[in-house]
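Internal ticket - ligand job 479, cobalamin:
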Amino acid sequence: MTDRGAAARAPVETPRVLLVDPYLARTDPMERKFVELYPSLGLLTLGAYLRGQRIHVDLVDLTFARDARPAASRIRSFRPHVVGVHTKTLTHDRALEVGRIARDLGAFAVAGGPDAASRPEEYLTHGFEAVVPGEGEATLADLARSVAAGLDPAGTPGVLVHREGRIVRGPPRPFLRSLDALPLPAWDLVDMEEYLGRWQRSTGERRAAVLTSRGCPFDCSWCSKPTFGRTFRQQSPERVVEELRALRDRYRVDYVRFCDDVFGVSRPWIDRLLSLLAEERLDLQWECLARVDLLKPELLHRMRATGLARVYVGVESGSQKMLDLMNRGTRLAQVERTAEALRQEGVRQFWFLMLGYPGETLEDIEATLQLFRRFSPEEYSVSIAVPVPGTRFHEAVRNRLTGRAPSRRGAGGRALLYEAAYPETLYRWEQARFGLEAALGRARGRLSPRVVERIGHVADRFHEKVATPLLTGKRGPAA
Ligand code: B12
Ligand code: SF4
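stdout (structure tokens):
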């Protein structure tokens, strides 16, 4: 085992774990526009689980901090055996910084979460002594106990370490059998009032995030699912309602974001949840991310009746060819049916759209824009496809990666990270066209339809005659 300083060498009865969320909102250029602030549910559940295992836990959430200094001072005062850092591509640099600080202060640094799971070597060669690429609860508890007891954690199920220049993998750790057995998230480990107060000031609602499932059974080619893969487990609807009630009673939460990869995968499950929500009268509004093939109009109607206010819809493309290439498993007719049903029900729709996926031509982009024009969703995000390591998309463009770091701008889908059919400027221009289209959609009630149509027409002509030839160099698609 490596030398980790006095705190770790002395045999101790109770292991101490400091969890760190290295996301720092004020240094994130996307924060204001794209990122909604919620504490990491992964860390809050880890914290609650470790407590249940009689492990001392604390958490440093850098979200509202100026820099990583709070992590250093907490390591000094708490003297943890293990510093556990949550990682995402977006927070890669800061996660490495926290790992270095932990190590310099004699603690054992372990990384978990999607980025470390996708590229463990990166973390193991930059100061982290271990990576937990999968579900973290039971693994971190075991790891903390062995580190606190001065044992070598190499070989612990679910743990990766670096030994003699290569990764040593512990045997796989089976997933937790029942999500209902997990304790409620340890909300007290973060400053919930800061999160809720910000929401209240900006929307008038006290918003919190809830997760009812882990994993996703679908298989979209660009989707990174390093932690749970294609597995899928759900909490019981009763357990979900218990969590909602706790949030309402303890924190006066009145708006919930269900953060599941896909909400309502199982129809009997969602039927039961909706019945419970109707019976319990929790007086909550809520939102979720759903697939168009699952959102049947009659289901939407019931969801609306129990407080559904907004749905994030993975529309992705207005071209069936592209949906098929992405292995999305959805039909354009389903997109249209769902968009129409949401409009009828008065539920806000947030569309996710993607440009630049291999095989996409200018005609496909145009089809997406036309779909967008027809339905004018209230909100949207149109990103340039990001090849995340570990995905089939990444595999397919491996030889065409530009080598630009995927953090920050790239993670927000505004940079082209591989040599696609067209140059980045074309995609940025197309993104601007969606911006104009959204503005025209908003202007429809205020300006005369003729004026709106005229502006759209002039913009289309400019796109066709000036922008496209200029930005493509009249090149045809290469992929
Ligand atoms: C909810 C969610 C959000 C929410 C809340 C984020 C938050 N504060 O946690 C919102 C909508 C705000 C959001 C925003 C973004 N998200 Co997001 N989000 C998710 C989602 C759907 C669920 C996260 C979650 O709670 N999972 C459930 C918990 C239980 O799992 P977990 O966090 O992975 O934690 C477990 C293990 O990973 C492990 N673990 C985690 N940390 C640690 C640490 C240690 C030490 C150990 C031992 C173990 C461990 O143990 C945990 C419990 O088992 C995931 C997809 C997914 N299924 O994970 C995407 C995901 C995490 N998001 C992603 C992205 C890209 C983003 C954005 C950058 C999007 C954008 N363009 O703005 C932003 C970044 C925001 C930020 N602050 O970092 C990607 C990350 C990809 C990557 N490689 O980094 C994911 C994986 C989606 C995807 N498939 O692409 N997101
Ligand atoms: S994009 Fe959504 S539906 Fe597709 S595999 Fe990923 S999580 Fe599942």
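Auto-summary: The chain has 18 helices and 15 strands. Residues 1-8 have pLDDT under 50 and may be disordered.
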